[in-house]
């Protein structure tokens, strides 16, 4: 079982001048400890939750990953996940390619349907119906795959039309950066995983829920003729704090491993210093987690 660290808060510590050094130190500690992946959100305002407000600090995701790439050497890097409405697909393919080249082949394309309408309306991003977001998501997947192929010709879709799909330099990752689709929607999201993705990222609400979603994904794979085993299963696990209930967390991790889940992405608690979170996970959890799988 691998671990990913999902960095979602930039407000601890409070001084904005400490955002960059805190981010860098957290990433270095995570890599040295053996985290497999480092992810950040694709938001421009902080999410509104019981523990956070929109006016808290938030950094643009791909710029942040470029900074993390410069201070690390091995961890995989991606947004969890790119909002499909935030970048034209051809430019998104170039952005991910740039991250891949500059990181030495460590970029992944995390992609999902945009949802945070407050920030979209505030910043002038078009707000379209959910059905159209998923149409655009599928076209974006097709465009990225074409740009990372030998076909540099045109693309004609309902929402996007590209006269050329040149992408030079090519990504260092062979044959291309892996595609991970985030979300648990049974009718559309998991169907797109089956058809296009190398990995899924599910929300870890319970063992039973993850098991059910994987059964749905397996059925979609059968429908489109995809090898279910070829898709990596990852889970954003926020069901319980990993450190405060360590034995329970490890039991659940073992159950998830039996379902075929190969990676758990962990989130620091609201208000928790991310450096301390990475240090504690490295000391108390990773050595025991390495025995699971």
Automatic annotation (TrEMBL):
The keyword Translocase does not apply. GO terms for molecular function: alkanesulfonate monooxygenase activity. GO terms for biological process: alkanesulfonate catabolic process. Keywords: Flavoprotein, FMN, Monooxygenase, Oxidoreductase. Residues 23-241 form the Luciferase-like domain. NCBIfam families: F420_Rv1855c. This is F420-dependent oxidoreductase-like protein. It comes from Kitasatospora kifunensis.
């Amino acid at each position: 079982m691998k671990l990913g660290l999902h960095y979602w808060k930039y407000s601890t510590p409070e001084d904005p001048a400490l955002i960059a050094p805190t981010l860098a130190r957290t990433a270095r500690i995570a890599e040295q400890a053996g985290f497999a992946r480092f992810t950040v959100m694709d938001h421009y305002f902080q999410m509104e939750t019981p523990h956070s407000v929109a006016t808290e600090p938030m950094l643009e995701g791909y710029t942040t990953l470029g900074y993390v790439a410069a201070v690390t050497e091995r961890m995989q890097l991606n947004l969890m996940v790119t909002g499909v409405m935030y970048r034209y697909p051809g430019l998104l393919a170039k952005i991910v390619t740039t991250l891949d080249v500059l990181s030495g082949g460590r970029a992944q394309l995390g992609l999902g349907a945009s949802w945070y309408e407050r920030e979209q309306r505030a910043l002038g991003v078009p707000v379209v119906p959910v059905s159209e977001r998923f149409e655009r998501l599928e076209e974006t997947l097709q465009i990225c795959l074409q740009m990372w192929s030998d076909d540099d010709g045109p693309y004609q879709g309902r929402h996007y039309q590209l006269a050329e799909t040149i992408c030079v330099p090519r990504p260092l990752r062979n044959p291309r950066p892996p595609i991970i689709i985030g979300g648990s929607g049974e009718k559309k999201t998991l169907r797109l995983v089956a058809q296009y993705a190398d990995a899924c990222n599910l929300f870890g609400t319970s063992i039973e829920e993850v098991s059910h979603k994987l059964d749905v994904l397996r059925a979609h794979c059968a429908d489109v003729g995809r090898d279910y085993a070829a898709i990596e299963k990852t889970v954003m696990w926020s069901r319980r704090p990993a450190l405060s209930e360590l034995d329970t967390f490890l039991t659940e991790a073992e159950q998830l491993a039996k379902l075929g889940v190969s990676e758990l992405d962990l989130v620091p608690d609201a208000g928790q210093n991310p450096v301390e979170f990475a240090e504690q996970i490295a000391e108390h959890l990773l050595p025991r987690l390495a025995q699971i799988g």
